Each structure stands twice: as structure tokens, then as C-alpha cells.
Task: inverse folding
């Protein structure tokens, strides 16, 4: 159909960044922020931003793609190009990263929590309230009462004024922090995306969904629709079962805990071991290399076996063994260091280029020049230090926090680009690592208090902005999108998403009540932040020797697996699989990854790579069908006031 367009129209059709694409993206971003907040904060009926491929942006893109097919058929001049559709999708993804589970939602669960829940029993007022940076927290009793109890209007002056300074300061902090991520993304884009040609498996679905506007290959693929039908039917039947229990349920799709069958000694030591066969997870895992999907479930099972063996020898979880959280911290730090190491030649070329020496670096096609990216990165670091120092954080803890945070960010971005896996690494964060290595006792109450207020954006990392930035630039390679303009679009989207996320959270919580009717309100972020702060102050620990040892164990194993794979090509143990399996990221998905790995191995073994390439479409359909069904339930549930079926958790 596209080949029949006259040349000027075809040129227009192929453009990427256009005013209408930006306007559509800006219009959809607040809608997406509000929807994410409704289903994740108010109803807790769709964990769409907990997955590496966000649910609501994919659903919106699917709806736009279907609408665009109609425009191509009847009003071709009004149809959006692939580049325009991707710009809209990228902007909506940015809104999910900011309004999602582990960013602004967490912030609202933290910044008013200390003053709302301080009591004589927990002794927070005596221990640290005076040390909290007052510009970053909300202390007004009336505003907090209305916020937590609800049935109020957020834009009344008595409610909104106490929030203005904290929200403005945190907004500035986020703009600087995510801007620094954007600079780092620019610096690693070429070596990872072009030189190493990492797979970027999570961009396959949006690219294929938008390519269909010209060839219709996607929408005419029967295998895709077969996979779509399977997952959509499962979600529909299970959703009806939630509403009408007389409808039979398709079991074992969601969590099934094996612990109920292993209650005696020593089996109970393995703890909660949850099986699931989420269709979308099976679909996502199909795009992983077989060695990685094998490593994810293998190391997860091995970690459970370690606990059982430890129990036999008298070690229990109360003693910390086998120190999986500490191993995970070392493993993720190791992945971050490896991400820096594999790019070392590129760093050398950039240094020579900036010094005016002969170099292979050419940054003319980059989203921004390397000189500008490095200057902005340094300026951002200085600005963040000034910001944090004004709040009371001294230089050494600031540098430790920043280095660890960005090493973890690099590791997650590399893992996403190479493998596309989830990265919910709950027990790995700068505060915890710093308390092990340096000891909470040496940091002091003020430093610990400032770090506690910063816990909300480095608790789980499920909707981390940086991997999505790199994926956006990779999609720009595949469609006619100018990378230089895309960088500015991304920053515009970041600012707009922060404002939209603020509005959505204030609107929902003041109407419904954070503690009254908001089933998914992130109060646990506040409890974790300030209960841990209380523990650090009341019983300040010195260096955790065992914790540090097992962090080095995790680091050494990560380097060891990398070295073995570099030396022997048939080694199936992937360092990223080890890190993912022991850091909570695989708790929900290990069995789905096992199922997908087994299917993939059987297909390749008995039918070859041709069948594997054809079968990819079925697994794309599994993802899309589950996402569409889950999104529809997440619209119907809040609209009609019932607790709907969740396709995840």
C-alpha cells in the first residue's frame, strides 16, 4: 500500500520526529500516568511497570497501530509513519518509567511517611526527625491527614502548599539524575549497539508492531494470532473465574508455592518457591539465549538447594547463610564493572579524541557530542553533590552512593540490552552495600537520615529509566528517527512525565486516601526506609565482615563465569543468569523461564533453526495477547469498581 504513495507523501510518511507525533505523545503521557497510578496505587490490579517490557505502553501502541491500519486504508495522508508511532511509544514508555512502581509512586510512599507515622513506640521523633532534610519531606499534619485518609481535593491550598517545595526539589533532583543517565547512555550507545551488536530483544515487539503499517506482515501472521489467542483466552477465562467462581480456572498460570509440599526438615529451609507459567514470561524468555534462560532457572534452583544443605549442617536463614543478598550485591557490582571493562577501548578512544589526538571516535551521528555528554555528566555530578550537601550529606557517602548507583545502572542497562530480562534486584542498593563495607556507625545520623530519604528510587529498579533510554536509541536506528532530536524529545518527556506523575498520585491519593482505599499504595517504602534508619541509629553496626566476604564471593563468581565463557564457548553458566537468580528477579519467573528454555531446546534440537525463527511469531503473540487482555481487565475493573484479574502476581 505504501509503495503507491506519491514521492512527497512517501517522504512525509517516513519521517519520525514530527510535531503531531510529539503532541500525541504529550497527550497520552498524562493518561498513561493516571492509568498506571489507578491500577497500581488505587486498585493494585496490574503490575504493568514491574516488567522489563511495560504493559500499558504496548497496549496503547497496539491500539494506535490498529487505528493506523484504518487510516492507511481510508485516509492514507493522515496515517502515522513507523517513526512517528515509535516516538509516541517512546514518550509513553518514559511516562511509565517515572510514574511506575519504583519511582514516583515510591516517592509518595516515603516523603510524608516519617511525620505521619512517628509514634512514642517507634521513637522516630527522638531518633531522627530533626535530622531529616526538611525541604525533601512533608510534615504538615493537615495535608498528610487528608492525603492518607482521602475524600479531599488535592489542589486546595491547605493540601497542595506543603507539597510544593518537596516536589519541586525532588523534580529537580530527578531531572539531574536522569539527565546524567542520558549522558552515560550516549557514551555507551555505539560500542554496545553498533560494535557489539547486542540483541535488544525487548524492542522486537514495538518494531514489528509498527512495521505492519507498510507490509501488514505482523497483522497477517497466523502464528502470531495463534499465540495471541492462547494467552488472551487464558486471561479471559481466569478473569471470568475471578468474577464468577463457577467458571473453571486454568490453574498454575499464576503463583503456586512448592513450599506447601515440602514442610518437613530440612526441606522447609528452601523457603517460598513459587512456580508460574505466565504466558507473557514464556514469550519474553523465548528471545533469551538458551544459556541465559538455563542459567536463570538453574542458579535459582541451586540457591534453594544451598539453603537445604545449610539447614542439614545447622545453618539457618537467621544466621544469614548462604548470604544470597550479599552475593547478589557483589554479582551486580561485578556486572557493572564488566560493563565498564568491555567498553574500555571505547573510553580510550574518547579520551584521545577529546585530547585532539588521532582516534577512531566519530560522534557526528550521536544524540549529543561526547564532549557535551561528558561536560554535562560532570556538571550533573557537581549539581547533585551541591543538592545533597545542602540537605546534609557529606562528600564521602555521596561519592560512594553515586558510584554504586551508576554501576548498578550500567549493569542493568547492559543486561537489558543484551538479554532483555527483568531486573527486580530488591536487596541490592547503595545504602545496604555501604553499611556492609563501611559500617553504619561511621556514617553518622545526618548522613544516614539523608540516605533514608533517598531510598525510594533505588529500592527495586523495576522501571529504571536508563535501560529504556538505550532501547529508545536502538529503535531510532531501525526507523527514520534523528538521534540528536530524540535526545531532546526524551528530556522533554522526562520533565512532562514528572509533572504528570505528580498530578496522578496527588489526585488519586487525596480522593481515595493513601491508607484508606489505595490497595497498592507504597507505604512499605516508608516503613523500610525509616525502620532501617532506626535500627542503624539504635544499634550502629561496624563493618559486616561476613557480608563483605560474600559480596566478594558474588563478585568473584561473576568474573569467573565471564572468564570461563570467554575461554570455553560451550560453558552454559552465564554471569547475568547467576546475578538475576539470586537477587529476587527470578522469584516470579524461574519456572516460566524453564518452560520456555525447554520448548526452545526441543524446537532447535528436532526441527532446527528455521522452525525456531518461524516459532518466534507465536511467542510474540503470547506476549501481546497477555498484555492486551491484562490491559482490558485493568480498564474494566476500575471503570466498574471491581477487583479484576491480574495477569502478573
Result:
Amino acid at each position: 500500500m505504501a509503495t503507491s504513495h506519491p514521492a512527497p507523501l512517501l517522504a512525509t510518511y517516513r519521517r519520525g520526529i514530527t510535531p503531531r507525533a510529539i503532541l500525541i505523545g504529550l497527550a497520552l503521557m498524562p493518561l498513561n500516568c493516571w492509568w498506571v497510578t489507578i491500577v497500581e496505587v488505587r486498585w493494585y490490579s496490574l503490575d504493568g511497570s514491574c516488567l522489563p517490557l511495560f504493559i500499558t505502553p504496548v497496549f496503547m501502541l497496539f491500539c494506535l497501530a490498529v487505528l493506523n491500519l484504518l487510516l492507511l486504508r481510508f485516509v492514507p495522508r493522515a496515517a502515522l509513519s513507523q517513526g512517528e508511532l515509535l516516538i509516541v511509544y517512546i514518550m509513553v514508555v518514559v511516562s511509565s518509567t517515572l510514574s511506575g512502581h519504583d519511582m514516583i509512586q515510591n516517592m509518595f510512599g516515603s516523603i510524608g511517611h516519617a511525620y505521619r507515622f512517628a509514634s512514642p513506640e517507634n521513637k522516630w521523633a527522638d531518633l531522627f526527625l530533626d535530622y531529616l532534610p526538611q525541604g525533601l519531606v512533608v510534615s504538615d499534619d493537615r495535608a498528610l491527614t487528608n492525603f492518607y485518609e482521602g475524600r479531599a481535593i488535592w489542589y486546595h491550598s491547605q493540601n497542595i502548599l506543603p507539597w510544593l517545595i518537596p516536589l519541586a526539589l525532588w523534580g529537580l533532583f530527578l531531572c539531574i539524575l536522569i539527565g546524567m543517565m542520558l549522558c552515560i547512555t550516549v557514551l555507551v550507545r555505539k560500542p554496545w549497539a553498533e560494535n557489539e551488536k547486542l540483541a535488544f530483544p525487548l524492542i522486537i515487539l514495538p518494531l514489528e508492531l509498527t512495521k505492519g503499517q507498510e507490509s501488514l506482515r505482523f497483522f497477517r501472521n497466523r502464528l502470531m494470532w495463534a499465540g495471541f489467542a492462547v494467552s488472551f483466552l487464558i486471561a479471559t477465562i481466569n478473569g471470568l473465574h475471578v468474577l464468577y467462581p463457577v467458571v473453571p480456572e486454568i490453574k498454575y498460570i499464576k503463583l503456586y508455592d512448592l513450599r506447601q509440599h515440602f514442610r518437613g526438615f530440612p526441606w522447609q529451609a528452601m523457603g517460598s518457591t513459587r512456580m508460574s507459567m505466565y504466558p507473557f514470561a514464556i514469550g519474553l524468555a523465548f528471545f533469551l539465549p538458551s544459556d541465559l534462560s538455563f542459567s536463570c532457572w538453574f542458579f535459582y534452583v541451586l540457591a534453594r538447594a544451598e539453603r537445604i544443605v545449610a539447614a542439614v549442617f545447622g545453618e539457618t536463614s537467621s544466621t544469614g547463610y548462604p548470604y544470597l543478598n550479599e552475593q547478589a550485591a557483589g554479582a551486580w557490582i561485578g556486572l557493572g564493572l564488566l560493563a565498564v571493562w568491555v567498553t574500555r577501548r571505547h573510553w580510550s578512544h574518547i579520551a584521545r579524541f577529546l585530547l585532539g589526538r588521532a582516534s577512531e571516535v566519530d560522534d557526528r551521528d550521536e544524540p549529543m557530542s561526547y564532549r557535551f555528554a561528558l561536560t554535562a555528566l560532570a556538571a550533573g555530578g557537581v549539581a547533585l553533590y551541591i543538592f545533597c550537601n545542602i540537605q546534609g550529606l557529606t562528600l564521602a557517602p555521596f561519592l560512594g552512593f553515586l558510584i554504586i548507583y551508576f554501576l548498578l545502572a550500567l549493569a542493568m542497562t547492559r543486561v537489558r540490552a543484551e538479554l532483555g530480562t527483568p531486573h527486580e534486584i530488591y536487596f541490592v542498593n547503595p545504602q545496604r552495600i555501604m553499611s556492609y563495607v563501611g559500617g553504619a556507625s561511621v556514617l553518622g545520623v545526618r548522613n544516614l537520615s539523608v540516605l533514608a530519604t533517598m531510598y525510594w528510587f533505588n529500592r527495586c529498579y523495576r522501571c529504571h529509566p536508563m535501560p529504556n533510554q538505550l532501547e529508545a536509541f536502538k529503535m531510532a536506528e531501525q526507523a527514520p528517527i534523528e538521534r540528536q532530536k530524540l535526545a531532546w524529545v526524551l528530556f522533554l518527556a522526562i520533565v512532562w512525565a514528572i509533572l504528570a506523575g505528580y498530578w496522578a498520585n496527588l489526585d488519586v491519593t487525596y480522593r481515595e486516601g493513601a491508607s484508606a482505599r489505595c490497595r497498592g499504595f507504597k507505604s512499605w517504602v516508608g516503613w523500610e526506609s525509616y525502620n532501617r534508619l532506626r535500627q542503624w541509629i539504635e544499634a550502629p553496626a561496624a563493618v559486616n565482615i561476613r557480608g563483605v566476604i560474600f559480596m566478594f564471593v558474588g563478585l568473584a563468581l561473576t568474573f569467573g563465569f565471564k572468564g570461563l565463557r570467554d575461554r570455553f564457548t560451550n560453558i552454559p553458566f552465564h554471569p547475568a543468569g547467576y546475578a538475576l537468580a539470586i537477587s529476587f528477579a527470578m522469584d516470579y519467573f524461574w519456572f516460566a523461564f524453564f518452560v520456555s528454555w525447554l520448548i526452545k531446546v526441543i524446537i532447535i534440537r528436532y526441527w532446527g533453526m528455521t522452525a525456531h525463527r518461524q516459532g518466534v511469531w507465536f511467542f510474540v503473540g503470547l506476549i501481546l495477547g497477555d498484555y492486551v487482555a491484562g490491559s482490558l481487565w485493568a480498564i474494566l475493573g476500575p471503570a466498574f469498581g471491581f477487583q479484576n484479574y491480574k495477569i502478573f502476581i
Remarks:
- The CA atoms of residues 266 and 311 lie 6 Å apart.
- The chain is about 65% helix and 0% strand.
- The first strand starts at residue 256 and ends at 257.
